[in-house]
Structures are given as structure tokens and as C-alpha cells.
Amino acid sequence: MSFERFVQSALSSWMNEDGPDTDIVLSSRVRLARNFKDFTFPTVFSDEEGQEVIELIKKEFAGKKISECGQLELLEMDSLEPLHKRVLVEKHLISPNLASDSSFGACLLSDNEKVSIMINEEDHIRIQCLAPGLQLTEVLQMANHIDDLVEETVDYAYDEERGYLTSCPTNVGTGLRASVMMHLPGLVLTQQLNQIIPAMNQLGLVVRGTYGEGSEALGNIFQISNQITLGKSEKDIVNDLTSVVQQIIAQERSSRNALAKTSHIQLEDRIYRSFGTLINARIIESKEAATCISDVRLGIDLGYIDSISKTILNELMILTQPGFLQKYAGGPLQAYERDIRRASLIRERLKLEKNENS
């Protein structure tokens, strides 16, 4: 393998797999934050200590095979170009924080990209596991398996009362962040989401944008995760989040059905206008592209459009991001140039899909 293998395709192989409720839940993720006993935490460690952590991980885990996920490859952030790191962020394989502050940062990626272990981000390691649809229990099991493998080699910083010790106090306890990526156009169009978010906050959950904290919810895609890591078990955190997500799925489906019944012509017009924009536009900004892709995806789910697949739309959501556009262009692009190339890429990809299905 090589680094190019991870940025050659916009879609990770697992994104082509089916999963429960994939019409609404795009993916499930579990992330475990861990630090090593007798090592200074990354927020204050020395250069020598940072390098020591990388060398330890490299020796014990680089090239190691994980069941059903394949071999792990180590990518050191200092050896990557800024554009390459941006592409990894756009694929949700590393965090924006690791990409921007990469001194002694690294990442272990599995063949199928279901596993990403970030090294020396805010904590010594952050084990991330991903799967399509609503599969929080399954990805927790995968993360715990990897967690056990690491603990066979390294002792964790752990306190009997506080649990796993982390750089940020909000992660102390289980160190667990469970999240789902959800496509919620129905709740947005019916303006119900603004009423639901405060209720979720009261339940200890948080709603963020596409790339986590501080990011925008492009294309009606929202990340919903737990806030509480202390005082609850990993199983309870995942079960509680799953229960809430199942309720949101039901509300989203209900709002979509209501729109189809009460605003059929307006909804159909919106969907086909967006489809027409994607097929014909010569210039398109990222926010407009994301909105149009969201509308067309809704049209596929409701049966209005059957000439393209949702997989293509998943691919376009990532391909049309700035990092990927510039990677395929072979270098930096101005915003206006990206808008032109984005429109061209979308037209070509949808035309190819239409020809393949005709």
C-alpha cells in the first residue's frame, strides 16, 4: 500500500456497503480517546516524547492486520502535503485538528478505512471505527477489540474513580464519542429540527455540522453525538444514542411523507430544479452543490428519481470538496476555478452514471 491508495478514491470501500436505515443514517462512528501511563500528554509533551509515542506505535502496530479491516498503515503527518491532509479530513479519516497541528502527529489506517487510529492529536491515540447505516453497537465492538489489542502492549492512564484520563476533561471517563451522520432534509424543510435540537441537548447529546465541532451542516447532513462520557458505561452511551437516533429516523420519515402529501408539486419542483442544476450548471459553489445533492438524494428516497444511485451522490459530496478538487487538478485552485471545476466534475459524473444505467 501507499498513501495514494487512501486518496485515490473519494469513497472508502465500506461506504459501498449497505447498512440499516441508510436512507437517513449515512454512517456510524465510535471514537475512543486513550493516553499512555507514564507518558506526558500531547498537549504539553516535549518533541522527544512525541517522537517516542510514534516510534512505539510504529513498532507495535504498523503493518498489523485487524480482523475484517485489513492491514494498518502508518501515515506521519509531517511527511504529507497540506492538500493531502485536507483530503483525509474530507474523507473523515483524520480530524481537522490533527491536519492543522501535525507536529509528531500520525495516523494508522486500515485497508478498508473502517479503522483510523489518530496519534498525538489531543490524546496519545484516538481509535476511530466507522460503518454504514445505524450500527453503533457493531462499531463499538470493533473499537473495543482494537482497544484491547493496544492495551496488551501499553498501559493506559486510568483512574479507578474517574476512568480513562484525557487531555480534555469532557472526555474523561469512558473516553467514548459515539456519533451518527444523518441526512435530515425533511426535518429541515418542515422547520422541526430547530425544535428537536434543544431536546437532544437536554438528553446529553449534541448536534454538529458535517465535519464536527464548529463546522457547517452542508447538504442537510448533521452529526449527532453524545456529550457525556463520565458516569455512564460505553454500552449505555451507545444504547441511549441509538434510541434517540431511531426516534429521529421515525420523525424524518414522517416529515418526508407529510411533504410528499401536502406539498407534492412544490417538493417535486424543488427536487427536479436541483437535478437540473447539477446536470447543467457551469459554475457552482460548494454550498449550492451540497444543497442540490441533498435534494436529489431525497428525490431518490421518495421515488421521484431512479436514473442515478445514492452511491454516486455520496461520492460527489466528497469529490466536490476543495481538497479533492485541487488534488485532481494537480495543484492549488482559486475559489472561482474550484466552482468551475466542481460543476464540470458533477456534470461528467452524472452523465456517466446515466449512460451506464441506460
UniProtKB/TrEMBL annotation:
Keywords: Allosteric enzyme, ATP-binding, Kinase, Nucleotide-binding, Transferase. The gene is mcsB. Catalyzes the specific phosphorylation of arginine residues in a large number of proteins. Is part of the bacterial stress response system. Protein arginine phosphorylation has a physiologically important role and is involved in the regulation of many critical cellular processes, such as protein homeostasis, motility, competence, and stringent and stress responses, by regulating gene expression and protein activity. It catalyses: L-arginyl-[protein] + ATP = N(omega)-phospho-L-arginyl-[protein] + ADP + H(+). Its EC number is 2.7.14.1. One of its GO terms (biological process) is phosphocreatine biosynthetic process. This is Protein-arginine kinase. Belongs to the ATP:guanido phosphotransferase family. It comes from the Bacteria. Appears to be allosterically activated by the binding of pArg-containing polypeptides to the pArg-binding pocket localized in the C-terminal domain of McsB. ATP binds at residues 27-31, 92, 126, 177-181, 208-213. GO terms for cellular component: extracellular space. GO terms for molecular function: ATP binding; creatine kinase activity; protein arginine kinase activity. Residues 24-255 form the Phosphagen kinase C-terminal domain. It is an enzyme of class 2 (transferase). A motif (RDXXRA motif of the pArg binding pocket involved in allosteric regulation) lies at residues 338-343. Signal peptide: none annotated. CDD domains: bacterial_phosphagen_kinase.
